[in-house]
Amino acid sequence: MPTIRFLPHEKKIEVPDNQLLIRAALEAGVHINASCGGEGVCGKCRVIVEKGQVQDGISEKLSAEDLEKGYRLACQSKVIEDLEVRIPTESQIDTSVLNMQSTPRRRARIEETNLEELKEKGLFMPPVEKVYLELPEPTAQDNLADATRLVSFLKLKHDEHRLVADLPVIRKLPDVLRQDNFKITATLARPVHGGRKTRIINAQPGDTAGRNYAFAIDIGTTTVYGQLIDLVDGSVLAQYGDFNAQISYGEDVISRIVYAEKPGGLERLHDVVVGTINKVIQRCIRRARVDPDEISSITLAANTTMTQLFLKINPRFIRRSPYVPASTLYPPLNAAELGLELGDHVTALVYPAVSSYVGGDIVAGVMGSGMYRTDDLTLFMDIGTNAEIVIGNRDWLACAACSAGPAFEGGGIKFGMRATRGAVEDFSIDPSTWEPMLFTIGNVRPKGICGSGLIVMVATLFELGVIDNLGKFNRDLNTPRIRKNEGIYEYVLAWQDDSQIDRDVTLTEIDIENLIRAKGAMYSGCMTLLNEVGMGIGDIDRIILAGGFGSYVDLEKAMTIGLLPEIDADRVTFVGNGSLMGAKMSALTNRIRRDVVEVTKKMTNFELSETPSYMDNYVAALFLPHTDLNQFPRLKSRMQARKAAGHLNG
Amino acid sequence: MPTIRFLPHEKKIEVPDNQLLIRAALEAGVHINASCGGEGVCGKCRVIVEKGQVQDGISEKLSAEDLEKGYRLACQSKVIEDLEVRIPTESQIDTSVLNMQSTPRRRARIEETNLEELKEKGLFMPPVEKVYLELPEPTAQDNLADATRLVSFLKLKHDEHRLVADLPVIRKLPDVLRQDNFKITATLARPVHGGRKTRIINAQPGDTAGRNYAFAIDIGTTTVYGQLIDLVDGSVLAQYGDFNAQISYGEDVISRIVYAEKPGGLERLHDVVVGTINKVIQRCIRRARVDPDEISSITLAANTTMTQLFLKINPRFIRRSPYVPASTLYPPLNAAELGLELGDHVTALVYPAVSSYVGGDIVAGVMGSGMYRTDDLTLFMDIGTNAEIVIGNRDWLACAACSAGPAFEGGGIKFGMRATRGAVEDFSIDPSTWEPMLFTIGNVRPKGICGSGLIVMVATLFELGVIDNLGKFNRDLNTPRIRKNEGIYEYVLAWQDDSQIDRDVTLTEIDIENLIRAKGAMYSGCMTLLNEVGMGIGDIDRIILAGGFGSYVDLEKAMTIGLLPEIDADRVTFVGNGSLMGAKMSALTNRIRRDVVEVTKKMTNFELSETPSYMDNYVAALFLPHTDLNQFPRLKSRMQARKAAGHLNG
Fold it and tell me: Residue B647: its pLDDT value, please?
């Protein structure tokens, strides 16, 4: 890994080969003006490469003389060896401020399913197993029925008890047995509890025990993700995600419910999401090149509305007070009967929910993350189209859905957008000139702001005093980037020429207000749950983030705005798609299915709107970071230091 | 009940009002010549009514003078008051012989499901029950999911545990609950064993607990019978039988199996029998005028081939050595998925089998008759298209299918026919003139012989020495009715003019031979089973007869030919359609379903063709009644008495 020394800051950083120089600067806490998102258009990110060579970095924005002097565009330069890079005066700022500003970019540690741990603990026991058997052939003296022969053999030789063969297995068994001299592979579906029946769901001639696959599916309101899992070794053979085709019928769960209430609407939404799942299934099968007949199970997790639409259960009462779902538990179902393009024998396991707004996706996250098994008081947050929180440990669990609004996904933000190409996702500002350094997804000119970018901006602007703790711009700063437009104060992130759109890209006070409301809802949700069990924010040992959003968010910045409680970044983990992770875990270990019923019973659901303390907590959280700064001691001391250094404006 | 005194026999008998005089004579053991089956054609059954009046009995065969003297045709006269009736000389026979001959007609006592006993013992517990519930309505403080609310309430208020709601119930529950202010009736399907899940299979608005019905179905090779049962009080509301439409594809199970092996054959036979069952279901529903939605369960019993065809399981290996069925146990199935025209929630319970030729119909008979619960050593015989026997008690059970052939159903008999209109079903013979007295079903001129008639004839002919113990006619008797026709000896039952057909109706030596083989197979089957457990025929305490045949057979005559072991007629009961009875019992008490698995395990199946002693027993049984007359002591003493009286011919 090459090392870069930034001058005059005297900051060193190691970066991977081919890293863009501008991103290396950001990681090092070194500001370089840059407003075109890294497309090389604005030409502001000029740096002088004093030692070593970069790849590319040459642009028409640089004259032959500039190039001779070692000037390169940081956003176009790839690091291929050790370098010394000087930041020219136009980007230079007081190093004392820089030092204070340079909180390292800390993203949450990614936690993955620990397959080895499962295997060590003997928990690698998929709910559906295959067993290869060489049965004795029937004779005049031993003419047991075929199914009885199979059951007896499993009992005697494999210690399997309470077996029952499904009708389709009985139907095919006579021929399957005689196809390869009574050598067959039986597929067994385990019960949740020991005393119950083990179902024989399939029989195949010969030895197919080495080919046993499962699907794990997350049905999101926006996207459907699937994983094809090898049940023999636990590995993921293929993965695919696609937009939930229900999107054409409404962006969020409420509009889907409204559509489902129309004549034929429920059937339509059911068909459409089943279509998407089938597409995901087919793609994974094609990618992994497995025989579809060898797929034995499918586990699905989704929020309550998505679950009901998938199962063709009218969700109309989910959106009506007192918000009652049809069910929280679902029996094992036949996948083919639900319309899934899988073998007749495939069992579909659907994650149970807690309530109308804390669904199977959240339960799956709790199961997949293992928080229900630890002593640590853990805060689980899933920030997606809807935001849900779960707090607790092995002894108790409390949960709630927060009406955070869509700000984290770019909703309600003037230039808000999803985290796709052209979205500003990282940001730095020069505290003397108030010129920005922007990073966009895809390193193209900016066209909007995604949720994680918004958090970084607001946190940075707040910490440097560009906005106050109410989110209002400091009206006294001398920069054309802060202006009043149609009565609303805003900061220009990118002038029209540097953007992909026909206007300036800005961040407005209304955007900030929306973000504050969203983070306030989340934070006060946590406080309310903790208060209800007599605890406080300070008692939280661990944070688990789930949802597409969580992987990009800069932890320190999220704490700065008061979205997350201030805890050591090492204690924050990111599980990615918690719903998919939980679905996968259920496919790998039957133990989850036993635990999950207990866990859902344990998960006390709070309807925040019905919990009196919630509104007080919410109002107190409508500040940056919070009315009570003492809840954020690290930020408090940084702000005090900055104030002492005389750099805190406003 | 009027009393009739027959003269000169001095025999008295009480008969029900409107009984035909000729039948009263038969019951009293009084012979009257009669060969037209009771249609009044032959005019031979002239009797003199000396006291009292009969209704009808007048015929053109009687002159005015005859009528004046009191002559009537016995077959046309109905008994309406006390009578004295003289048998004229032409029908009179030596009274000493008559006295010996007159074994009373004893049919088996009919045993029916004892509902009161079930109720007393607390066993009236249908596998599917309805419970009316008034649930609390949800509030902001209590917003449990609808299914959870239902499950919790059943748990708290009705002590129901381990409940699981089926998906269709979850689908309808939100609307059903809100249709009548959370007052609903839930339908619960009980598990076989206590620790397992109780399924909630239906939910209806309001109180429908008083309307809960079940179907019990016997799928016979020839006929399908159904009963519609009220699960609230256990009564049978309607009953209907129809020919199994599979008959068009073959008379017996073997030809059905052959057809099922043709392309599309299995599907065709499945569809056709499902069609017949649906017809039976629809007829019963119409007759009882019940709402089809209130039918909660259906229990079916059938022989192994019929079961496999109904369940669309290829039966090809049933007819191939070593005669292996696909399965003996079937899980509870969804009736609608099987093609039955019943609600989606209806569970179909299919009786388990023992082997390829001892099927669910026999197991149902064993369960329905209760023989598996008694200390008495019981012989259960089902004589139908196929013949099966079960011997045992609460401690052990042995069973076998006998290749008896179709003689009992009229098959292989020159003038054999099913027990329908025109079949000779009872018979007496004048031991001096060898003139017969015939009774046909429907009292019409004879056209053939049914199984029970055949037994009476052969027994009567044997006991009077018209045939010997090999079934050969006494060639020395002076009567035109015994003759050689195309090389075969035969007895003319009805001359062409007295018959419905264009020929004389006869009983041939080949017919007798076939009957002897059939009864020999049954009897030697019993002996073999008993020998295998170290017991003998004499140990049998009780006989239970099942099958259409059993209700008509004259017990003493059946013992005379050696079909049944000689035991007190009081110890013989007739359960009718044992298969239907067992199906009904399962619909009434869930206990049967628990017991039946144990019982089928206990039922040791003997393949008689593979049991060495069977052939010896069979050869010994190819006599009337048997090589060893000592096994029939009552018959032996009658024959000795007759011999002493000098009346034994041959």
Answer: 54
Pairwise CB contact (< 8 Å): B148 & A197 = no
Per-residue pLDDT of B234-281, as tens digits, reads 999 999 999 999 999 998 899 999 999 999 999 999 999 999 999 999
Instruction: Taking each helix axis as running N to C, give the angle between helix A633-644 and helix A451-463, from 0 to 180 degrees, rounded to the nearest 10.
Output: 40
Q: Which residue's structure tokens are 């022989």?
A: B303
**Per-residue pLDDT at A91:** 55
Which residue of B lies nearest to A196 if distances are taken between CA atoms?
Answer: B196
ipTM for the complex shown: 0.86
Cβ contacts of residue B399 below 8 Å, gap of 6+? Answer: B354, B358, B362, B388, B389, B390, B391, B529, B603, B604, B605, B606
Q: Which of B142, B146, B148, B345 to mutate to test the interface with A (most CBs of A within 10 A)?
A: B148
From the CA of A173, how many Å to the nearest CA of chain B? 7
B309 CB neighbours in chain A (<8 A) are none
Phi then psi for residue A214, to 5 deg, are -140, 155
Residues with Cβ within 8 Å of residue B305, at least 6 apart in sequence: B221, B253, B256, B257, B315, B318, B356, B359
Burial A178-212 (b: 16+ CB within 10 A, else e): beeebebbbbbbbbbeeebbbbbbbbbbeebbebb
pLDDT class of B105 with cuts at 50, 70, 90: low
Query: Is pLDDT above 50 for B100?
Result: no
CB contact under 8 A, B329 and A138: no
Q: Of A324, A333, A355, which is closest to B167 when you measure between CB atoms?
A: A333
Q: What is the mean pLDDT of residues A498-505?
A: 92
d(CA A359, CA B207): 33
Which chain B residues are within 8 Å of A147, Cβ to Cβ? 326-329
How far does A119 lie from chain B, in Å, by closest CA? 30
Q: Is the dihedral of CA B611, B612, B615, B617 positive or negative?
A: negative
B385 pLDDT above the threshold of 70: no
- Choice between B553 and B393, residue whose per-residue pLDDT is larger: B393
Angle at A67 between CA A66 and CA A68, to 5 degrees: 90
Question: When comparing pLDDT for B23 and A484, which is higher?
Answer: A484
Residue B226 has pLDDT above 90, yes or no: yes
User: Which residues make beta-bridge pairs with A574?
Assistant: A110, A545
B-chain residues near A323 (CB < 8 A):
143
Beta bridge partners of B187: B130, B202
pLDDT in tens, A399-423: 999 988 788 888 889 999 988 889 9
Residues of chain B with C-beta less than 8 angstroms from the C-beta of A142? 322
Cβ of A607 and B143 within 8 Å?
yes
pTM over 0.95: no
Name the residue facing B313 among A170, A323, A328 (closest C-beta).
Answer: A170
Q: If you measure CA to CA, which chain A residue comes closest to B163?
A: A331
Looking at residue A9, its pLDDT comes to 79
Residue closest to B41 by CA, chosen among B453, B609, B540, B497: B497
Residue B532 has pLDDT above 50, yes or no: yes
What are the phi and psi torsion angles at B30 (to 5°)?
-105, 125
Answer for the pair B126, B88: CB distance below 8 angstroms, yes or no.
no
HEC readout, A306-352:
HHHHHCCCCCHHHHCCCCCCCCCCCCCEECHHHCCCCCCCCEEEECC
For chains A and B, CB pairs below 8 A equal 137
- Which is nearest to A279 in space by CA: A340, A338, A348? A340
B128-146 as b/e, with b when 16 or more CB fall inside 10 Å?
A: bbbbebebeebeeeebbbb
**Is residue B332 exposed (0-12), middle (13-18) or buried (19+ Cβ within 10 Å)?**
middle
Is B165 in contact with B151 (CB distance < 8 Å)? Answer: yes
